Amino acid sequence: MISSSAKIDSTARVEDGARIGDEVEIGPFCVVGAGVELGPRVKLVSHVVISGLTSIGEGTTISPFASLGSAPQSYHYKGEASRLKVGANNIIREHVTMNTGTAGGGMETVVGDSCMFMVGTHVAHDCIVGNNSIFANNATLAGHCIVGSNVFMGGLSGMHQFVKIGDGAMIGGMVPVRRSIIPFGAIERDARGLGGLNLIGLKRRGHSRTEINAIRAAYHEIFYGAGTFEQRLDRVVVDYAEIAPVIMIVDFIRDAGKRRIFMPHDASGMGDLDDAA
Questions:
Q1: What Cα–Cα distance (Å) separates residue 261 from each residue in 29, 34, 183, 190, 243?
Q2: Does residue 136 sit in the same domain as residue 211?
Q3: Are residues 132 and 22 in the same domain?
Q4: Does 138 share its domain with 230?
C-alpha cells in the first residue's frame, strides 16, 4: 500500500507489497523491497536499498548508498524470515549497512529512535541499539551486540560479538571493544581498560553535581575498594541505594553476558583482555 501523499521519483523501484506511509519521499534510483514498511515522513535521498522484512520509523532520513535489511553476514543464516526494525527520527548517512537477525539471535535487529549513524557504519545481525546514540564514521558492530542509549562510538571503533555497552558510555576512535563497558564508562584509544567516567556526558544529560559525585565515589569503591569484587558491589548497593545510575552500573556488571567487563587498567583483578570468541 502506498500513501497518496508519498513522493516517489520515477527512477525509483518500489516492489508490490511494500507499505509506504504518508509524506514519504523516495528519491532517484532507490529500491524498496516487497517486505518493507516506511513510516510517515521517511526520506530516502537517492540510491538507497531497503530490502528484507524491514520497518523504518517516521521521520528517519537515509542518505545515498545505504543498504538496510540485507541478509546477515553469518554462516549460520539459512534464509529464515528475520527482521530489521529501525525507529523514528534517525539520521542514517552514506554507505551505512544494517542486517536482519538470525534464528540463533532472536530473529531481529533493532535500532531505537533519534540516533545518528555516520558514513560507513555497520549494525550486524541480532544487535540492539538504544535511543539517542551516535556512531561516528566507520564504527561497526559485530553480531549480537547490545548498545544502550546516549552512547557515543568513535570513528573506526569496532565491537566484538556479544559485547554490551551501557547507557551513556563513550568509546574513543579506533578502539577495539572486546569487553563490555559499564554505563557512563569511557574507554580511550589504547583500549587497555576503562579511562574513567563520561563526566561530560553526565553533565549534558542533566545529572546533578550531587549525583555525579555519588557516581564517581561508587566507581572508585567498585574498582579500587577493599575486599572482593562482589563484596564491593554489595557495599555500593547499600551505600548508594537511592542513586539510580549507581544501581544501573551494579546491575549491568552482574548481568554483563558472555563478555567480561572492561576494568580500569590499574585496578586489581583485570585479567587477560583477550576473552575466548
A1: 44, 41, 11, 16, 21
A2: no
A3: yes
A4: no
> Of residues 27, 52, 59, 126, which has the active-site annotation?
126
* Amino acid in the structure at residue 203: K
Is position 122 annotated as part of the catalytic site? no
Compute how many other C-beta atoms are within 10 angstroms of the C-beta atom of residue 19: 16
Task: For 229-259, write each residue's pLDDT tens digit.
Answer: 999 999 999 999 999 999 999 999 999 888 9
Residue 160: active-site member:
no
Q: Which of 143, 155, 166, 195 is catalytic?
A: 143
* Same domain assignment for residues 16 and 135: yes
Closest among 197, 90, 73, 208 to 141, alpha carbons compared: 73
pLDDT of residue 276: 34
The grid coordinates of residue 107 equal 530473529
What are the cell numbers at 251? 546491575
Range of the domain at 45: 7-144
Catalytic-labelled residue, pool 47, 95, 122, 125: 125
Please confirm, yes or no, whether 95 is among the known catalytic residues: no
6-64 tens-digit pLDDT? 999 999 999 999 999 999 999 999 999 999 999 999 999 999 999 999 999 999 999 99
> Are 118 and 212 in a shared domain?
no
pLDDT (mean) for 124-143 = 98
What pairs with residue 122 in β-bridges? 97, 140
Is 182 a member of any domain?
no
